[in-house]
Amino acid sequence: MPATTTSSRVSPIAVSIRSSSTPTGPVIQPLSAESSASGRSVRIISGGFFCAVTGTRTAFGPYEVCHEAYDNSNHEDSRGTLVGFVSDRFADEMFRLSPEERKARILDSMAQYYGDEARNPVVYYESDWGTEEWTRGAYAASFDLGGLVRYGADLRKAVGPMHFACSDLAGLGYQHVDGAIRMGRLVAGQIAEQLG
């Protein structure tokens, strides 16, 4: 019968995984010391390209509600598409607002980068990463005080046939796609070596 972890302090992903290998304390304990950041992603679509008006394709503003934004417009589409990210304390603050207030605050923030047109999108789509079944937060996990020192050596160890790779384990490229790609290649290489 497959082993299942049931501790409420363990990551939702870990309790959903079924394995014939029984996870040991060094595998379970680090998960209870991790937390996923709260975050939201926002996609807005307008009638025209944003960067054509403002000259801005990529924007970063640590003091803005949307701390990171990209003009993600498709070159074959006449509409403009922006993608923005809200995290940390601003994401926490957004939880306390009504949907209308939240949308207004986020669009005002996007307008700081891309002009007034960003306040009046044709389409507005917001994703609350905290409600996602497999992540329960985003865009990366972090350890509580002392957690990385205590559990860091165990993070990349396989549990039976299960290997783990993600940007949260990357070191360089932590929390970004390049780190996830590098970790995926590392683990794929380890598995290929084991299979001979």
Short descriptors:
alpha+beta, 7 helices, 5-stranded antiparallel sheet, two-stranded antiparallel ribbon, Polyamine Oxidase, Chain A, domain 2, 196 residues
Q: Can you offer a commentary on this structure?
A:
A hairpin with a 7-residue loop joins β3 (58-60) and β4. By secondary structure, the protein is of the alpha+beta class. The model is unreliable at 1-12 (pLDDT under 50). It is elongated. It is built from 7 helices and 7 strands. 34% of the residues lie in helices and 18% in strands. The two termini are 28 Å apart. The strands form 2 sheets. Strands 3-4-5-2-6 form a 5-stranded antiparallel β-sheet. It has a two-stranded antiparallel sheet with strand order 1-7. The protein has a domain at 39-131: Polyamine Oxidase, Chain A, domain 2.
Q: From the coordinates shown, what is the CATH architecture of the domain at 39-131?
A: Alpha-Beta Complex
**What is the residue-averaged pLDDT?**
75
Global morphology: elongated
Terminal CA distance reads 28 Å
The share of residues in helices is 25-40%
Low-pLDDT residue intervals, each spanning 5 or more residues? 1-12
Question: What name does the CATH topology of the domain at 39-131 carry?
Answer: Polyamine Oxidase, Chain A, domain 2
CATH class of the domain at 39-131: Alpha Beta
Q: What letter string, H or E per element, gives the SSE order?
A: HHEEHEEEHHEEHH
C-alpha Rg (nearest Å): 20 Å
| Structural class based on helices, strands and sheet pairing | alpha+beta
Number of helices: 7
Largest sheet: 5 strands, antiparallel
In terms of DSSP E residues, the strand content is 15-25%
The number of E-state strands comes to: 7
The spatial strand order of the largest sheet comes to 3-4-5-2-6
